[in-house]
Amino acid sequence: MGRFEKLVNTPAAMEVFRAKYRIPPGVGLRYCPLEGIVTDKRLGEVVIPMIAFIEGGMTLPMRRITREYLFNYRLAPQQCAPNMFKILGCVDVLDERMNLGLTWHDVAYLYECHRLGDEGYYLKSRNEDVRLISCLPVSNKTVKNDFLIASGEWFDGIHCPTRAGNPDKSHVAPRLSLVNVPALNYLLRSEIYVSEDGQLRAAHLVLGYQPLSSSFQAIGHAIRAGSPRLARIDVSRDGFLADHDLPPVVLPGVRNPYLAEQLPPPDEPGVAVQVEEEAESSRLSLEEEIDEFHFEEEVQQSPLAEFSDPEGERDRHSAVGAPSLVICSDDTSDEETEPMAGKGKTLKELLGSRGKGQSSKGPPSPQAKALPPVVPQGTLEPGLKVNPDLKKKRPVDTPEEGEVAAQPTKQQKTARAPRSRRGNSSESRDEESLADVRVTPRVFFLFLYWGGSNPIVRVGEGSICFYPKYAILHHTMSLKVKSI
Q1: Which residues of 299-321 are buried (b: 16+ CB within 10 A; e: fewer)?
Q2: Which DSSP letter does residue 349 get?
Q3: Cβ-based burial of 474 (10 A; exposed 0-12, middle 13-18, buried ≥19)
Q4: This model's pTM is above 0.70
Q5: What is the distance in angstroms between the CA of the first residue and the CA of the last residue of the chain?
Q6: pLDDT at residue 416 above 80?
Q7: Residue 350 belongs to what H/E stretch?
Q8: pLDDT tens digits for range 139-179
Q9: pLDDT tens, residue by residue, 344-371
């Protein structure tokens, strides 16, 4: 029986263990002794030493730096000594609390990975004076024989190896170009998590556990709290120390680790309730701001009306609100611009005032719902007559008795200058057609539909079928007004 088997040998004890180390319900756990690692593990499962949870800060799913370090070193968790989990766990926690942006390259730059026979792989500081994590136990003989087999949702994304492997020295070689030098210098100079004897970043203080062993590694010449050498630490220099004091490192966005330590973890129920309360308060404040903002005049919705084109075919925009129609010509007078100078009027009033100035003074015809207003006859050129139906030919005027019919005048041919035989034939056709071109007045139509909170404005210009009193627009275009 292992030293920690009693912590998980019953369902009640397993539930306590899962709650203490925040094991998600989707992760399956079962105890495994040292001799059952090979026989009890199934495909897709991983074997983790129990000491990694108790004193190594292990979580499931694994934290980022721990997972990436094992993945790049090709090590399964059962191959790692307890001190490796403590160092990797401390770096993960410090990085999360202080927002430093560290990676596994930073750990590989400060620590060497060694193998000691059957003891597995462990980490050793490359510089005995500059240590990232301190207060590591001297021996781990009685804490490395108990394991847990994790199954189910024990990982998210890329997971660490589940079978034993060996590191590739060329792949894990330390590279200064991949190291976050400012973050490491800031962390190594920080006097945080100081032990009773002055050691910096003590493992049991960072991870918050009661150490099982009180025998720690000798401090030797390691830099302690209050040492003047703290200001000389620079991992980019040989020996990680400069000959003189260096200016302090300033990192934007770095946090106080003690303040971050006091915050509850995001998976606790109290945090979810607090987040919901903050979201509700922000929503209420937003509604109050919206209520304070109001328009000068609200537009009342008008009932829907159906329109049809002259051919009797239903248009896709036929079911719309009753429109307000304004006809705008190229020439604008001063009388039309005077209503626009008024202040405090809505767009509906301004458009209505322009429509009154151009519309007919007589009573509206019953067909006004389907046809635009009357086009002034004065805009037509002399000699042109209105054709009610363009499909039919214009009737020939027959003179009454005693009246002499006007004879159509022939266009006299004009003498042309001699042109080159190589001239473009299209130019001659263009010149011949210039005499028959007649300029017609351009009329613009503006349809404003008040069918909802967002009105739709239709503006059109195109060929017009002239009727005795009305004009129908053939080509229109639609655009949606976002706000008035």
Answers
A1: beeeeeeeeeeeeeeeeeeeebb
A2: H
A3: exposed
A4: no
A5: 80
A6: no
A7: helix 347-358
A8: 888 888 999 999 999 999 889 999 999 999 999 999 999 99
A9: 556 556 666 655 544 444 444 444 444 4
Spell out where 284-351 has E strands.
304-308, 314-321, 323-329
Helix axes 64-73, 82-98, angle to 10 degrees: 140
111, 113, 115, 116 alpha-carbon torsion, rounded to 10°: 0
Q: Are 143 and 150 in contact (CB under 8 A)?
A: no
Q: Tokens 């829907």 correspond to what residue?
A: 304
d(CA 444, CA 330): 8
Query: What distance in Å separates the CA atoms of residue 336 and residue 332, rounded to the nearest whole number?
Result: 7
Residue recorded with tokens 């609100």: 321
**Residue 302 clears pLDDT 80, i.e. is over it:** no
Taking the C-alpha atoms of residue 451 and residue 407, their distance in angstroms, rounded to an integer, is 54
DSSP letter for each residue of 370-434: TS--PPPGGGSPTT----S-TTSPPPPPPPPTT-PPPPPPPPPPPP-----TTS-HHHHHHHHHH
